[in-house]
Write a structure and sequence with these properties.
mainly beta, two-stranded antiparallel ribbon, 13-stranded antiparallel β-sheet
Length: about 425
């Protein structure tokens, strides 16, 4: 690794690391990964040195490569597993192949460009960081689904390329900074775009829900457009459905619902992640809270319909369809075995804003000064996971853990920090 600094304003470093992995094939076990970065402290230049507006300004640019070899061991070898079978009433032990060997497995490589700006204004009363990044992941290590005729289910292979790019920003603001009162706010936000650039043979992998030009992780399913109503009886019959059952969009308009009518419902990863942290200190009192939010994604709450799938049909407060309640939310009550497309009922928008943490404390240091000398004696109350200010999914679904059978616990802590 080489690092150079000139006049404390111009910075440069370059490094190369070489890694090896016994999990990969002969000839592909070793690979070198270079990285380099440059930075310019603009605020140290003469034309900004004495500026009363710009307190800090730094520009950064970097490039780096890293490797991934996180696959199961021995994928480059043909493995065996024991099996039993019966012959003429007698039991025998035997061996059979356990997976196909891939003699060409190599490193998955991530190549990232990053450009950033660090700034501070008005004696750093306002400051922050803005980052722009672009990552290309090549030779992805993924399991490829194999035809059943091969006798094997899947195979580890370098089969694709993905791309991530986005912007991350952190803004620090000090509205009040004084002797007795200090108030600070920190806001962070990330916006990410990702997509699959290339797959094996340039084709979509519908079975694994991977599509060229689309986000990396998506829900691929039928699209529910409502519930068949009484006045749609004849139309429903064309699709072998009845009023009260789930109505699916006929994408290709061929008069029947097939696998060709499945569409991308949405991506699994949030497009935007944001938070706001507040800290207020007045003399010996302190108060803080943290708001977090995620937006632009779809969640799957499989347990939300678990009772129905068990034919118990005891979900509380469900807006079931009936002839007198022609809702388009939930179908009529019937056993899961006779209800089609129930998987469409478990997909919801995952947007939410939550009060993550809130705390209040008091330091008894000055109050106890006439009696005893202590460095710190702070009594505080802290609450975590209090409530959601907003969530797009139903109120009885946890958007952060939609498939958990438990609710996200709310905790209340009373504590004492002291130092003598």
């Amino acid at each position: 690794m080489i690092e150079l600094t000139y006049k404390d304003r111009y910075l440069f470093n370059v490094a190369v690391r070489t890694d090896g992995s016994s999990k990969l094939a002969d000839g592909n076990k070793w690979r070198s990964f270079p990285s380099a970065a440059v930075a310019w402290r603009v605020s140290e230049e003469g034309f900004l040195k004495d500026s009363k507006v710009v307190s800090n300004l730094k520009l950064r640019l970097s490039y780096g490569e890293i490797g991934n070899q996180a696959i199961d061991s021995y994928q480059t070898m043909t493995r065996l597993k024991s099996k039993t079978y019966s012959w003429a009433g007698n039991g025998f032990y035997t061996w059979q192949p356990d997976g196909l060997a891939n003699k060409g497995l190599g490193w998955e490589v991530s190549k990232t460009w990053n450009a950033g700006v660090d700034f501070g204004l008005f004696d750093n009363l306002l400051g922050g960081t803005v980052e722009f990044y672009h990552t290309r992941n090549e030779d992805l290590l993924l399991t490829r689904t194999l035809p059943e005729t091969t006798g094997f289910g899947s195979l580890w292979q370098n089969i694709g390329t993905t791309q991530n790019h986005g912007v991350e920003a952190t803004i620090n603001v000090y509205p009040v900074r004084g002797k007795d009162l200090n108030w600070s706010l920190t806001a962070t936000a990330t916006r990410n775009w990702n997509k699959i650039v290339e797959l094996l043979d340039g084709k979509d992998d519908r079975g694994a829900s991977r599509f060229v030009g689309q986000p990396i992780s998506v829900f691929f399913n039928y699209e529910k457009i409502g519930i068949w109503q009484l006045d749609e009886l004849e139309e429903a019959k064309k699709y072998k459905q009845e009023p009260g059952q789930i109505k699916i969009r006929d994408v290709d308009e061929d008069g029947k619902i097939t696998d060709n009518d499945k569409v991308i419902i949405g991506q699994k990863e949030p497009k935007v992640i944001a938070s706001i942290q507040n800290s207020l200190v007045y003399k010996d009192w302190d108060f803080s809270f943290n708001l977090v939010g995620q937006f632009g994604h779809i969640i799957e709450a499989g347990n939300y319909i678990a009772e129905w799938n068990a034919d118990k049909m005891i979900i509380n407060n469900v807006d079931w369809w009936t002839p007198l309640n022609p809702t388009n939310e939930w179908p009529r009550v019937q056993t899961a075995q006779s209800q089609d497309y129930t998987s469409t009922l478990s997909k919801f928008k995952g947007d939410f804003i939550k009060l993550q943490d809130i705390s209040i404390g008091y330091n008894f240091k000055h109050l106890l000064a006439p009696v005893c000398k202590v460095e710190k004696l702070r009594l505080y109350v802290q609450a975590r996971n209090l409530f959601y200010l907003y969530r797009a999914c139903p109120g009885d679904i946890n958007p952060e853990q939609p498939n958990s059978v438990y609710t996200l616990p709310t905790s209340l802590v009373v504590g004492l920090n002291f130092a003598f």
